[in-house]
Amino acid sequence: MMRHGSRILSTAVGLSLAAGAAWAADPEIDKLLQSPVGKDWVTNGGNLTNQRYSTLKQIDTTNVKQLKGAWMTRLKGSGLGGKYSFEATPLVKDGVMYITTGNDDVFALNAKTGEFLWERWSDIDQKLTSVCCGWDNRGLAMGEGMLFLGQLDANVVALDVKTGKEVWKTPIEVWQDGYGVTSAPLYYDGIVYSGITGGEYGVRGRLTALDAKTGKILWRWYTLPAPGDVGGDSWPAGTEHYLHGGATIWNTPSLDPELGLVYFSVGNCGPDYDGSMREGDNLFCASVVALNAKTGQYAWHFQEVHHDIWDYDAASPALLFDTVVNGQPRKAIAQAGRTGWVYILDRTNGKPLIGIDERAVPQEPRQKTAKTQPFPVGDAIVPQCAQPLEGYERAGCIFEVFWEEPTLVQPSGIGGTNWSPMSYSPDTGFLYVPGTIRTSAFARYGDSYKKGKQYNGGTQAAPIGSAMSGNWTAIASNTNKVAWQKNVTYRVGSGGGSTTTAGGLVLHGDPSGTIQAHDAKTGELLWQFQTGFGAEATPMVYEVDGDQYIAIAAGGNQGVGSANGDAVWAFSLKGQVNPLWPPPQPAAVAGPTGPIAEGVDTVKIGDNNVEYRYFPSRTRVKAGTAVTFTNVGDTPHTATSFENGKFGGWDTGPLGTGESKTITFDKPGSYYYICTPHPWMYGQVVVE
Ligand SMILES: [Cu+2]
Fold first, then answer.
1. Which end of the chain has fewer surrounding CB within 10 Å, N or C?
2. Spatial contact of 453 and 179, defined as CB atoms under 8 Å apart
3. CA 566 to centroid of ligand 1, rounded, Å
4. DSSP alpha helices (H): ranges in 92-197?
């Protein structure tokens, strides 16, 4: 590989490389990471900016209608099963594609034909109890002849890029304590940066930097500061709540070599919906943070939501771009929050670039709510006020407060924009933002921290019968205003994001199973193609032997309920492969789905490797019937009554694997229920 030649090569390209870097461990990859994306796509976000913008333009607005499948490969059943989501962005280098599945398995494929070159099965424990929101892996990084990935069991792993053989494996935490990794790491200049999950398990979030050669941990930067650290006074003094405040990192950092800073978005506070014990702003929950990329030293932060009690993460990747504001060239960073706003900042210092006002917001003393919240100048991408609903006494707009009385709020606790990445085109100056339109019924309950257990302090289920949909918005990056917007049937903010090209296209998948291309300037839908599975990953673009390809993973998203699968598609102008039949479509209305099972008095939770569902989800029994709920899944679940947002009238309580609880239904009526840690699971018992 390049290792021995690296010192010589780096002097040749060194002038455009990182300031102060005498030599690079992998000058070829480092150069690609700093360049506009061309024929290879060597990191999750395309390059260090996370812009997901390809300079390839063989496929453009005039010919995109001709696109067909060049190939489709099924990944041998990896990640097949309803507990999985398939959100990975493939990497391509020198005609080879590398992709991860929700089981952390890695495959190398011939990028021209889709044929298998090697495969590496993760052998992760199938009984992990620390996965909050679907088994998922968002992708890889590469450098120094290796591929890097984070696993759900909290290991960061390096594989030989030629063979898939393990080079090193470093536990950055212990999954039994609630930790995991779903984000794709970032490789740059000899360092692998990894996020960590566990925001629903009372963990202490951090960015971990590892030596790419050895896997040795170089430094950790905790997103929850200790007393005396920067931000340490934003947690109540003399308590340990800062140790259990979540603030995890769901996505790949971005990095500016000239400024020497690494940037990332930080997730929600824990416990999610109960702020009563954690008075203060609770840094660095729901923030964008910049650190010295070499040392991990704090540089700046911007908190999007103070004292978060709505699960309003910054979960989507932070994106770097250069722009001109009032005639001045500026270095910008943008992040799409679950609040429905895009936060546009100066990436040299974290100050708002376009304007963000601190405004007074509703107060709930028991929740210790923050007095003000940041309101960006410009437009939100989704509605920020909930409509009143029969049966609910409280409804409000963003930052509306709640205690135990269910309170309807938009955006929901999953956004806005959740994990899905946005993209940026320097040709239009637009950011292409995926959005989820949904209502949460927020309600708080008391919760105490237990190591390795869910620590939510409330719930945010969508009301039975309430509409759920999505949209795509082009945001003008110099004004933060909507340039165009397209509503879509299903939620698109949770899984796959957008990619844009110099051919004038915005590409994205859809939970219905299609991959779609829009005109980047106008939003006009130019092409769509049915992949046969929920297309909930972010597309990427590459070139082999002079032909441009567009690739996407298609395997669904368990949170949205789109069709599970294990397919990777590549499209080209020479493609001959036809679309598949549409798969079963996800729900556009909240509540239990499927036929009513007559006379069935046993409900299994997490059966058939579909972790987050009740089987059957609807049943009809006679008055006086005892219904037995049994958890046959891997994760603790509940069946908890949910009537007009009020929950807990009857409750199985948390059921571990194999545990059962019987509830007797005496009175005729309809009884809805949810799983409190997974409030997108719904069931119904109809009693005659
Ligand atoms: Cu559950």
1. C
2. no
3. 24
4. none
Q: Three-state DSSP class for 233?
A: helix
In the block, tokens 């046959």 appear at 632
The mean predicted confidence, pLDDT, of the chain is: 94
Integer angstrom CA distances of residue 573 from 58, 65, 164, 203, 237: 9, 9, 31, 48, 62
Query: Cα(15) to centroid of ligand 1, in Å?
Result: 53
* pLDDT tens-place string over residues 132-161: 999 999 999 999 999 999 999 999 999 999
Instruction: Say if CB 266 and CB 286 are below 8 A apart.
Output: yes
Task: Tokens for 119, please give them.
Answer: 């495969």
Separation of CA 158 and ligand 1 centre (Å) = 32
CA 320 to centroid of ligand 1, rounded, Å: 36
Residue 20 confidence class, pLDDT cut points 50, 70, 90? very low
Q: Name the pTM for this structure.
A: 0.94
> Quick check: 19 pLDDT over 50?
no
Alpha-carbon distance of 199 to 271, in angstroms, equals 8
Query: In the predicted model, is pLDDT for residue 411 greater than 80?
Result: yes
CA dihedral of 581, 584, 586, 592, whole degrees rounded to 10 = 170
Residues 6+ apart with CB under 8 A from 123: none
Q: Contact, 676 vs 638, CB < 8 A? A: yes
Give dist(CA 53, CA 18) in Å, integer: 21
74 phi, psi to nearest 5 deg: -90, 130
Q: Residue 548: which residues within 8 A CB-CB, separation 6 or more?
A: 56, 57, 58, 59, 541, 542, 572, 573
Identity of the amino acid at 241? H
Paired residues of 467 in beta bridges: 589
From CA 116, how far away is CA 108, in angstroms rounded?
Answer: 6
Catalytic residue numbers, as ranges: 311
Give the Å distances, CA to CA, from 109 to 39, 88, 99, 143, 536: 16, 14, 8, 18, 20
Q: Does the pLDDT at position 12 exceed 80?
A: no
Residues with CB under 5 A from ligand 1 (ion): 637, 675, 678
Long-range contacts of 102-105 (CB under 8 A, 24+ apart): 102/134, 102/135, 102/136, 102/137, 102/555, 103/78, 103/79, 103/135, 103/137, 104/137, 104/149, 104/151, 104/152, 104/153, 105/75, 105/78, 105/79
Asked whether 501 and 53 are in contact (CB, 8 A), the reply is: yes
Give the distance (Å) from ligand 1 centre to CA of residue 613.
7
DSSP-based three-state secondary structure for 53:
strand
Residue pLDDT, tens place only, 471-515: 999 999 999 999 999 999 999 989 899 999 999 999 999 999 999
Which residue is it, tokens 């495959």? Answer: 107
What percentage of residues in the chain have a pLDDT greater than 90? 91
Residue 648 has which token pair? 């807990």
Distance CA 568, CA 428 (A): 29
- Secondary structure letter of residue 207 according to DSSP: E
- The gap from C-alpha 525 to its chain's centroid, in whole angstroms, comes to 25
Q: What gap in Å lies between CA 380 and CA 235, rounded to an integer?
A: 29
CA-to-CA distance for 688 and 686, rounded, in angstroms? 7
Q: Write out the two tokens for 204.
A: 């202490």
- Kindly list the strands in the beta sheet with 625-631, ordered across the sheet, starting from the edge strand earlier in the chain: 614-615, 602-605, 625-631, 660-665
* Residue 133 alpha carbon to ligand 1 centre in Å: 9
Cα separation of 317 and 133, whole Å?
18
Q: How confident is the model at residue 301 (pLDDT cuts 50, 70, 90)?
A: very high
How far is residue 401 CA from its own chain's centroid? 25
pLDDT at 10 over 50: no
Structure tokens, 510: 């859809």
CA–CA separation, 647 vs 464, rounded Å?
12
